Amino acid sequence: MPPADELQGLRGLHLPPAAGSYWTDIGLAVALGLVLALCAALLFRLLARPRLSLRASAIAAFEDTLALPEDERRVAQAALLRRVVRTVAGEEDARRVGGEWAETLDRVFGSDLFTARGGRVFADGLYVRGAGDTAALDDELGALMRRLGR
């Protein structure tokens, strides 16, 4: 028997059945999200990895200088002192020479080694042979490096 209204006899429109499962789309989205999260975590770890502190890097560089012959050791230590001062006090202070350089070193390291004692060799006589007790100067420089801040 035909329905009284022809429109009621029509079935509702439906999409054809999907070729794949609904869950494969969700699984793909989850897998893609996990891969992106892993990439983001690795990138964050690479960018935010801890760097050596000024003290640790200065001590390591200072200990490397101890293996050098005396003349080369003083030059390497002078370069290290310039790098430390540049990091702590800035480029202008690191460019000083002579007595001003010795005063800057004493101010940065909080001592009188460079103006009144054996560290004066770094301000005045870097290339003078046999300038003082090298072992004592190395010990004092090592102690100053270990007292650095940061």
Automatic annotation (TrEMBL):
Q: What UniProt keywords are attached to this protein's entry?
A: Membrane, Transmembrane, Transmembrane helix
Enumerate the transmembrane spans: 26-47
InterPro entries assigned to the protein according to its UniProt record, in alphabetical order: DUF4381
> Sorted alphabetically, which Pfam families does this protein's record hold?
DUF4381
Name the chain's protein: DUF4381 domain-containing protein
**What is the originating organism of this protein?**
Methylopila turkensis
